[in-house]
Every structure is written in structure tokens, then in C-alpha cells.
Amino acid sequence: MKHHSDIVNRLLREKLERETQARTRRHFIKSCAQGMGGLALSSIFMGCDPLGKPKVRTANGLTERDLNPLSTLPPHYSPKVKSVIYLHMAGAPSQLEMFDYKPQLHKYDGQDCPQSLLEGKKFAFIKGTPKLMGPQAEFKQEGESGNWVSNFLPHFKKVVDEVAFLKAVHTDQFNHGPAQLFMHTGSPRLGRPSIGSWATYGLGSENQNLPGFVVLTSGGNTPDAGKSVWGSGFLPSVYQGVQCRSKGDPVLYIEDPDGMSRNLKKRTIDAINKINKEEYAKYADPEILARINQYEMAYRMQIAVPEVMNINNEPEHIKQMYGVEPGKESFANNCLLARKLVEDGVRFVQLFDWGWDTHGNVREGSIDMGLRNKCREIDRPITALILDLKQRGLLEDTLIVWGGEFGRTPMQENRGNKEMAYKGRDHHGDAFTMWMAGGGIKKGASHGQTDDIGFSGVDGRVSVHDVHATILHLLGFDHEKFTYEFQGRPFRLTDVEGEIIKEILA
Amino acid sequence: MDVLQQLLGRLHPLVVHLPIGFIMMGLLLQWYDRKQGQYAQIIAFVYLWAGITATLACITGYLQYMGEGYSFETVERHLWSGIATAVFSFLMYGKLKAAFLSKVPMALSSFFVLALISFTGHQGGNITHGEDYLVEPLPNSIKSALGYDTFEEKQISLTEGNWQSALLYEDVIMPILNNKCVSCHNPKKNKGDLLLHSQEGILKGGESGQVVIAHDASKSEIFSRMTLPMDDDDHMPPEGKTQPTKEEIQLIEAWIAAGHPFEGTVGEIGLKKELFIPFFPKKHDTDHPDIEITAASQDSIKAIKETGIYVDPISATTNFLSVSCINQPNFVDTDLGLLLPIKNQISRLDLGGTQVTDAIVEQLRSLPNLTVLKLDHTKITGKNIGALKDLRHLRTINLTGSDFQADIQVFSDFKNLKKVFLYKTKTNFNGVRSLKGGEISIDFGNYELPPIPSDSIVY
């Protein structure tokens, strides 16, 4: 026995000696500096609270938010919705062939556009004097609300009474990238957090096994503005959107590599977290806790994400209703996934569908053919999504937003001042249509009106900031008070603008 | 020449620091030399340069005053005290060098110079940063103790019942002007010579004349400037300041159209109700009862959260809680006991996808403020669901995908129920979509989108 304890003692002594040897003056100075810096930083970070309420601190001086960044900040007022599904038609859909019916435009079809409309305006491609082009779709008033829907959307007319239209949205950007950034981050330049990031920053996430903000893309391409449209900007990166794929692994590298069992993975993560916890005990830097949480979340996600992202388990009639194509990347699949994600407590689901840029330069980009195909691809899935959420009692807790980054001109595009091969319309930010549906939205409402040819809004013009203010309002946040301190000043999603669009609120 | 004048003028904020530095240097040297008295020569030299640079500062300051269009009242005190600083710096020089004014004690004159430079500097700061620059960060209580006006937001409180008897100016227009205009148009900071805090000020108008013209809103600048585009320099309030809402601007317009009366109630003046509806308190269709309740103890909430149940405040304005077992699919009937410490605060309860059975229904009766109840994808058959009829706030029950098979008429006895979701249950749709004459909507779902020919047409 004595022999054994001797060995143990010797080993312990050796360990201590090794540790002291390894500890150089450099280590000492480094840990001093980090310790002090960490102390200072952590007290600075913990001092700020965007909602101006004192925080409840746990025994170790940390708030619940430090331990779990996806816990909730109480919203300013009672939210109308718990989740958002944002359907973005990347490339900008033509409002004039979908919702904004302009019978007068038929009369002017083929006539030169009046100079007064062109003066001082910037267009992406239109040169000289373009010709006006009448609506290429047929319109009918649908539902009890009598709102106009074109024959490009034969299914959508069944849910027209569920949605509220914004007919005169305007933006000041006329190129895809900046306009998409503006639509999703409130600024046409890089660096601001996206709406989804703001929402998750504010409301966190209920399901501890899934990310709070999920992004799904379809149409063969990601948005022109790149991943910044779901980026977290200056918010902590834990709030950025997680892009999931409807084809192949839902999240890249989510599967364990060959030879790595789940058990081994668990032990690896436990070991890393143990070291991280020791590190935290030393420096008390909340970023370390966030790191620990991320590892654990990733481990849980490995099981939960493939499960929620699998649409094969859905009953046949649901698959048919959405028109899904399992195994492919499609907007229909993404709509069904959006429902499943929201059902599982995901806060913000962002769908981007690419291919709406109908200039008329190619067949797929023509107003009378390409656009019609795109409409068919979204018509059934969106209608199914609204109905499916409704029958599950989820529509009253969910906000659906539909739109593009801008609209399209009433003029036919004449790129290079020549006649184009197909019928097309150029980018146009002066007036375009968006719609919202779900909790807190006045069903069947239509706000805003454009002039006779759909060039500009004449009544009820709303800006991108107004749309943002309204989305935040429905999530329970006062867009003027929901701020984040960065570079010495508080930042808002709506900058210094934005007014809630009360006309479409229930 | 103008360019030079303006450029030199703009150097004033730079130049002023020279006399400040010299005077402080002189004062410090005087203090250091108070016993020995050996440095009089050096101190005199310092004050000489203080005087020279102060004169330079005066000149550049005057040029800036000329070039930048400040009104004389704004700069008056700073101007005179600046000149006095220059003069006194030279006097200090004379006193040290040539025993000028030797009867005045040195300590007293030094102290006076210190006071003078501080005062001048402060006045200058007030011009560039605004008069309340230093005071602004102080709490309201200290501000008012110091005699500064504190800005208080005034609320418009109108209701369905009292809007007609509210005083149009005092209860409606004044709060709008107070919240959006008065912070710049008050006696302390009367931008554009306009005062909007009082009836007299509004009637008097400002630099550009009348701001209200009775019965003609479009000619009244107080209104028309609010409607200018944001990037117009004449737009009021200026960019960056809190803007009045559309509804508030409409009220100002209506008030002027009615002849901008300062007396009389809304009813007497006869304005339309639509103008005021946006200011009525919102009817709450929220996930909690419209009552006040004491907060649940943080320890109870913490204990429940530690079991993995999600507890979430509904909002910062209420103590009601939303509870979700989304992360606890193994939640069983007896686990409801865990929630009893916060039973009064739970208004939204999500037990969807858990192991609960009909036995939970009896226990749910002990949650008096339950408003939204989710029992979807559970084994609830609904045989005793009627026991929940006494929950007078219960608004929504979601039974989607549950084993529910009871007669839906049972919901008719519920007090405040609005929505029941019965999609994918064992009850079949029997044509009933609502109960209690439409008050309760029953949603059986099963919506369909039958195929149509155009589904497969590719263009």
C-alpha cells in the first residue's frame, strides 16, 4: 500500500513541477492581461441590455443570456406571432402580372413611354424611350375581399382572403444585390444584421435542438447579395441564419465522418467542453460559454435536423398538396420544410427562390413564359403552406411575408435601345407589391394604390423600413426601441425611419 | 478675401486652446512658485503670450462670428468675456513685469483670470455643442434642481367613451407638439424664433412669419413643413429627430382646418371620429388575459427551466408566462405538478407532442388564466374536456393530431372560447364549422388543392 501512495505522490509532484516549468513569465503576463481584459470586457457586455430592463443574474454573475444566447429577451409588448416565414422571390417578380392589375396599361400597350416618367429616373437596362407594355396576364377579383389575382396564380386565389396586400411598396435601390440587402437588413450596404437575426436576437429559439433562424434556397442559385442577406452583421454570430439544403445533407458536414461513431463524437465534445469550462473558470469570458453551447447544440442538431428536414415521412396527401419532389431542390419542398420547422419552434424561416429576373433577354426570363413557369412553381406550394398552417392552428402564430427586392417597370425592356427577343420588364423600385398573411394581419386587406400604369404609388406608399417596422411590431418589438449598441451608438433595423403599417393590422 | 476670412474664422476653435494653455501654465507656475518667488520673469513671459494668443483668438473668433452667421445674442457673452480674457492676460503681464496695479493681491487676480478663462471656454462650448450639452446626461431630478427644463413626453389618452369630451388643443394637439416639436421650439432653444409650447408662441409665429393660418392647413407652415419630403431642408422636424406619425399630422391638419381653436372639446368642434381612433387603446387579442397579475418568483421559474421545460415571459408589459414542453417530449400527466408554483402566471401552455392523457385535463383546471392551450399530437380523447369550461380566459384549444373523439358540442359551454383545431383527430367533420352562433370556430382542416390542368403546363 505504502508503495502505491508513494507512486501517486511522486506522480503528483512531477505533474506540479512540469506545470511550473511550463509556466514561463510570458504565460504569466499573458494570463494577467487576458484576465484583466476579460474582466473589463465582461462587465461592459453585461451592462448592456437592449430593452433597458435590469437583468437577472445567476450566482456567477452571468445572465441567462450569457449562458444561453438563444433564450428570450422579453418583447416590448405582447407578440402577435411567434414565427416568421419570409418568402423572397429573388430577382424581383413582376407585380403587373401577378397582383397589381392595370387595365389602363392595356390601352397604352406599344406606345412610347411619356418623357415625364423617365426624367431623372435610373433604370438598370432601359435606354432611350421604351414602350409601355400591357399586362401579360388576365386578372379577376377573387374571394370575398375582391382583391385582384392573375391567372398566373390559379391556386393562390383560394387563399386571397387570408392575405393583406401592400400595393405601393417602394425602395431606393434598383440592382439586385443592394436591393436584397436593403430588403433584408435595412441597409443597401454590407454589415447590418438581417431581419431574421434581429428576430432571433430578440426572441431566441424555443427548440433547443434546432437553430432559431433557418434559410432554404431554391431555383438553382442563391441570392445575388450572397449570404449577407441572412448574416448577423454586428450581432453575435450565433444569431445568423443557418442555411439548410433540401437535397443531400441538410446541413453540410452534419453526418459523422466514416469511422467516427456518435459515441466517440459525444466523448470528444465532452472533452472539449471540459477544457472550455476550465478555461471559463479561469477567465470568465462569456464567449467561452457560447462556444460550449454551440458544441452541444451542434451535437443535438445532428439528430434533430435530419429528422425535421426529412419530408418523406409526410403523408401522401400533404406531399401532393404542396407538390413536393423529394430528393430535389425545390420551392415546394422548402415550403413544406418551412411548415415543419415552424411547427418545431424555429423562429424565422427564410425562403429564397431564384429566377424571377424577367428581363426578356432569354426564354426563361420572359414575362409571358418564364414568369408563368415561376408562378406555377410557387403557386401551389404557397397556397398549400397557408392552408396547412391554418389547419394546424399555426397560421395564427406565424407571419408569412411574400415579396421580391423590387418590382418591374410598366415599360417593356429595350436593352441597348433594341427590341428584345422576348417580352421583359426592367427593374423598378418606385412601386411594387408585397403581401403578408397570418397572425395579427387584417385578412383580405389591400393597402396602397399605384397610378394608372403602375409606375408610382399614389396612395398608401410604404417603404422597406415600414415593412420592417411592421414585422418587428408583430413579433412584439417596438422598432424604435429595439436596438443594439455597436461602435458607440445604438443601431436599429429601421435606422431612423419606419412606420408601422397599421392599415394591414387586425 | 472672404475665403481667407472664413478659413481664419474656422481656425478659432483651434486657436482658443493656445491662451487656455498659456493661462493654465501661468497659473500652475504661480502656484509652484508661491513660496520662492523666483520665476516672476518666466511667468510674466507666459502671460504675455497668453495675451497675444488670446488676442489672436479674439480676432479669429470675430471672423468666425462674421462668417458663420451667428446672431449677436448667441455669441455676446462669449465675445465680451473673450476680450476680457485677453485684456486681463496683458494686465497680469504688466502686474508681474512692472508692478502694475500692485495693490490688488496677486492671488485674487490669478483667481479672477482662472474664473474668466473657465467662463469664456464654457460659453464657447455652449455655442458649438448647445446650451444643455453638459447638463443633458444628468438625471431629470438633478436637471430640474439646477433649474433646467426637463422634457417630458405627454400621452394622448383617448377612449371610445371620452374622445368627444376631450379638449382638442389641450388633450390632443398640445401633446403632439410637445412630443415632436417643443424640444427645439421652447423659450430656451427657440430655433427659428418660434415657440410652440404655448398658445401665444403658436399665434406669434417665427422668423418666416405666421405658422398657422386658420382654415388653411396647406398654407400653415406648422403643417406643410411636416409633409415635405424628408430630404427637403425645410422639412420639420429635421432629419434624425423623432417624426410625427401620419395620424398625428392628420390631426394637426384637421385642427388648422377647424380654425386652430385653443378652446373647446373635440365634440364641440365637430371633428370626425376616424381621426381619433388610432389613438384609442388597442383591443388586445393577445395570448394572455387583459388583467394585472403579480410576477412569478424567479426561483420557481428557474427550477422549472432546469427540468428542461421552456418558460418565457410573454412580454415586458405583463407578468404572464408562456410555457412550452417542446424540448420535453417525455412530459407526462404527473409532471404538471412542476408547473403549479407558477399556475397563476401561465397563460400559454404548449403540451403538444408530449405523453399527456385525459388525466391532465382535471389538473389543467388549476391554471386559472390559461388562454392558449396546445394539446396537439397527444393521446387526449376529449372525454372529460368539458371540465375546462370554467377557465374563463381560455380562447384557443389546439387538438390537431390528437386522439380526440368527443362530441364537439361540449365546447358550447365554454365561456370565452374562440377557436378549436381538430385536424387529424378521430372526430369526423360533420358539417359544423362553428358553435354558439359563430362565436367559436371549429377547424377540421383537411384542406385540399385538387390538381388543375395548368399544374403541368410548362411554357
Describe this structure in words.
The complex is a heterodimer of chains A (506) and B (459). Chain A has 506 residues and is α/β, with parallel strands linked by helices. Chain A contains 13 helices and 17 strands. In chain A, 35% of the residues lie in helices and 15% in strands. In chain A, strands 1, 4, 5, 6, 7, 8, 11, 12 and 15 form a nine-stranded mixed beta sheet that branches. A two-stranded antiparallel sheet of chain A has the order 2-3. In chain A, strands 9-10 form a two-stranded antiparallel ribbon. In chain A, a hairpin with a 4-residue loop joins strand 2 and strand 3 (147-150). The longest helix of chain A is centred in the N-terminal third of the chain and has 23 residues, at 25-47. Chain B is an alpha/beta fold. In chain B, 37% of the residues lie in helices and 6% in strands. Chain B has 14 helices and eight strands. In chain B, strands 1-2-3-4-5-6-8-7 form an eight-stranded mixed beta sheet, covered by helices on one side. The two termini of chain B are 72 Å apart. Chains A and B meet through helix 10 and helix 12 of A and strand 1 of B.
